[in-house]
UniProtKB/TrEMBL annotation:
Pathway: Protein modification; protein glycosylation. InterPro entries: Glyco_trans_ALG6/ALG8. It comes from the Eukaryota. Belongs to the ALG6/ALG8 glucosyltransferase family. Its main location: endoplasmic reticulum. It comes from Dibothriocephalus latus (Fish tapeworm). This is Alpha-1,3-glucosyltransferase. Keywords: Endoplasmic reticulum, Glycosyltransferase, Membrane, Transferase, Transmembrane, Transmembrane helix. The keyword Transferase applies.
Length: 125
């Protein structure tokens, strides 16, 4: 070893053993909170967006089947890799934005603006 590590020569302090012993439970809890937030925000927004067929209203083209469109939206790699892997909770902002977009397409501007403000303000600190 070229240089000693930062805790060399000093005994463990301030719950070092506790943190090492419970890291799997903490990781599992964080994964479940990401999945729960996705189920509460992103999933209903996708269902609303698909059921109201906002895409066909904008483009005028025949829309994809709701099942295929939902499959594409739920299998988005950014959500799977970033949200579920790094606990970023971006599905909440995306869910609010998708809900706002669907509401705007259905001329529900007040609720759409509320959902859009929630999407913008969610990740602000």
């Amino acid at each position: 070893m070229l240089q000693p590590y930062s805790g060399a020569g000093s005994p463990p302090m301030f719950g070092d053993f506790e943190a090492q012993r419970h890291w799997m439970e903490i990781t599992l809890f964080m994964r479940y909170t990401v999945l729960l937030s996705e189920l509460l925000t992103y999933t209903p927004a996708v269902i609303y967006f698909v059921c109201t067929s906002a895409i066909s209203q904008l483009t005028g083209t025949p829309r994809l089947s709701p099942g295929v469109l939902s499959l594409f939206m739920f299998s988005y790699p950014g959500l799977i890799l970033i949200d579920h892997g790094h606990f970023q909770y971006n599905c909440v902002s995306l869910g609010f934005y998708l809900l706002a977009f669907g509401l705007f397409c259905n001329d529900r501007r007040l609720f759409g603006s509320i959902a859009f403000c929630l999407a913008l303000a969610y990740k602000q600190m």
